[in-house]
Every structure is written in structure tokens, then in C-alpha cells.
Design goal:
This is ADP-ribosylglycohydrolase. By secondary structure, the chain is an all-alpha fold. It contains 16 helices and no strands.
């Protein structure tokens, strides 16, 4: 069983970190080292008001708002389309950032392609657009067995990204979140998954080549990598590695997400992915109130989280 505070911790953990990262998006690491982000601010390449979150949070809340006991993938996919066509889960009424793969998949949904087939399936279709929005699924699959958890993950991921690498990345992330939700500490979660995930993927007959892509997480100790060995591009594996690296190398919510933001490049998404786990790990009270106070649509977010628990 999980509780409202845990849902709030995860979803505010994402949106606060996302909003912190928006002004730093596409900035290089050297510039951020010289003038780091230390709190909420406006501006950036998108010239957004303080507290404005991006498509990362928009699509996360689309998922959370449409995950029901009677699972309906078409309804979830159509909520992404509703975000594009209407003022639905937009922070301030406009869309200022959307990934290429996500845009293509939503267009596919518009033309009637089934949600299971709307996402790209080539190796080039491995941006972080599914990883950034996947966390609400951990609450839906919390009491399900591992085969069911993988199946639901594949369904939700495939709306925008059907390649197995993106599916594995999201599955790993959700399994990490599930351990945190169960009260396990972050290092033990990481170490348990090093055995469990590769073994499970092998049982599914997923190619060794794909499993080996996750070598840093599955076989090495990612905490021992230097910052200059951690990449923060929009590639799903870079985002996953960077978010886990930030989580394991910091000891509170604020330092985790600011570390992620100041890695630069796809700063909002790296921070959002790290922030969801950090929110679960440290709790809602660990997120600075002054950061939450300036978030766009804060009350709508609170209502979504209450409704999500009741579904």
C-alpha cells in the first residue's frame, strides 16, 4: 500500500526539479559551473516565468490523470494528444518544448495509429521522452508481479518509444522507484537491481547486446565515475545513468536535483528523472517550500494527486 504523501513526493519531486532545470536547458556544463543554478529562476532559452515546468511534467501528469483501475491505454495516449490540441496539463497555456519522437508519436495517434504502435521502434528512437513521464506507473503496478510490471511498462513506453532500450530503461527506473517506495535505501536498491534486472531480461530472451548497453548500471559502480564521465544529453541511457549517479552521490533532495540541473544540456529532464526518485526517497517535506510555492498550477497538481490515489 502507498499513501498520498508518497504520490505527492514523487510527482512534486519531478515537477519542482523540472522547473529548476528549464532555465538551464541546452546550457553547457562549463557555463553552469561558472554560474550554477541554485534555486528557482526565470529565463533560459525558452524565456519562461519562474516555476514553469516543461513537457516532462505535462506528460507525467497526463499519465497520472488517466491511470485508472480499468487500465485504458487508448485513453492515456489520447491524453497526450489532448495536451497538444488543448490547454490540458500545460503550465501556462503554451507548449514551449516537445521532443521530436514524442511529437511524431502524438501525430501517429492523431491519424489513428494504435497506441501500442505509435512510438518509434528504431535504435535512433531512444530519446528520454518516455523515461521522463513514466514514474506514475509505479503506483499502478505496485502490487503486481514482475511479468505484469514489465508488460505494463512496455505498453506505456511504446506510446512514444518502442525500442527495447527505452523499455528496459523505464523498467529499471520503475523497479528502482518500487524499492524506494517499499522503504529500501538507495544503495541497496541499486545493488539488488544489478542482479535482478539482467537475470530477468535474460529470461525474456532479450539480446545480450542490449543488456550490455546498461553495463554501468548492471555491472559497475556508477558512483565511482567522475562527473566528466557522466553525460546529460537527451539520449535515454545518458539520462538514466545521470539521474542514478546524482541520486547515489547526494544525500538530500535539493543537492540531488541541483546536481542534475547543473550537468547541463537536457537539464530539465535529467533533473525531473532524478527528482522523482529523490522525492520518493526523502519525502515531500524534503522539497523546499519556496520552490513548491512558485510552481505553475500547483493546486491542479494537488488535486490530480488526490484523485490518483482514489482511482
Amino acid at each position: 500500500m502507498f499513501y498520498l504523501d508518497q504520490v505527492r513526493s514523487a510527482l512534486f519531486g519531478i515537477s519542482v526539479a523540472d522547473a529548476l532545470g528549464v532555465p538551464a536547458e541546452f546550457m553547457d556544463r562549463a557555463s553552469l559551473k561558472a554560474t550554477p543554478i541554485t534555486g528557482m529562476q526565470s529565463g533560459g532559452i525558452h524565456n519562461q516565468e519562474v516555476g514553469t515546468w516543461s513537457d516532462d511534467s505535462s506528460l507525467t501528469f497526463c499519465l497520472a490523470d488517466n491511470l485508472e483501475l480499468n487500465f485504458n491505454l487508448e485513453k492515456i495516449a489520447n491524453s497526450f494528444l489532448k495536451w497538444v490540441e488543448e490547454d490540458y496539463w500545460r503550465p501556462r497555456g503554451e507548449i514551449f518544448d516537445i521532443g521530436i519522437a514524442t511529437r511524431k508519436s502524438i501525430f501517429n495517434i492523431y491519424t489513428g495509429v494504435l497506441p501500442e504502435l505509435s512510438g518509434g521502434e528504431s535504435e535512433l528512437d531512444n530519446g528520454n521522452g518516455a523515461l521522463m513521464r513514466i514514474l506514475p506507473l509505479v503506483f499502478f503496478t505496485f502490487d503486481k508481479n514482475i511479468d505484469e510490471r514489465f508488460t505494463y511498462t512496455k505498453k506505456i513506453v511504446s506510446i512514444t518509444h518502442r525500442h527495447i532500450r527505452s523499455i528496459i530503461a523505464c523498467f529499471y527506473y520503475l523497479e528502482f522507484a518500487r524499492y524506494l517506495l517499499n522503504g529500501l535505501d538507495k544503495l541497496n536498491s541499486y545493488m539488488r537491481l544489478q542482479k535482478e534486472i539482467p537475470d530477468y531480461l535474460a529470461r525474456l530472451n532479450i539480446s545480450k547486446t542490449e543488456i550490455d548497453m546498461f553495463d554501468r548500471l548492471f555491472r559497475q559502480n556508477i558512483t565511482q565515475f567522475n562527473e566528466d564521465e557522466i553525460e546529460s544529453s537527451g539520449y535515454v541511457l545518458h539520462t538514466l545513468e545521470a539521474s542514478i549517479w546524482c541520486l547515489l552521490n547526494n544525500n538530500d533532495y535539493s543537492s540531488t536535483v541541483l546536481n542534475a540541473v547543473n550537468l547541463g544540456e537536457d537539464s530539465d529532464t535529467t533533473a525531473a528523472v532524478a527528482g522523482g526518485l529523490a522525492g520518493l526517497l526523502y519525502g515531500i517535506d524534503s522539497i523546499p517550500q519556496e520552490w513548491m510555492n512558485v510552481l505553475a498550477k500547483k493546486e491542479d497538481m494537488n488535486n490530480c494527486q488526490k484523485n490518483f490515489l482514489m482511482q
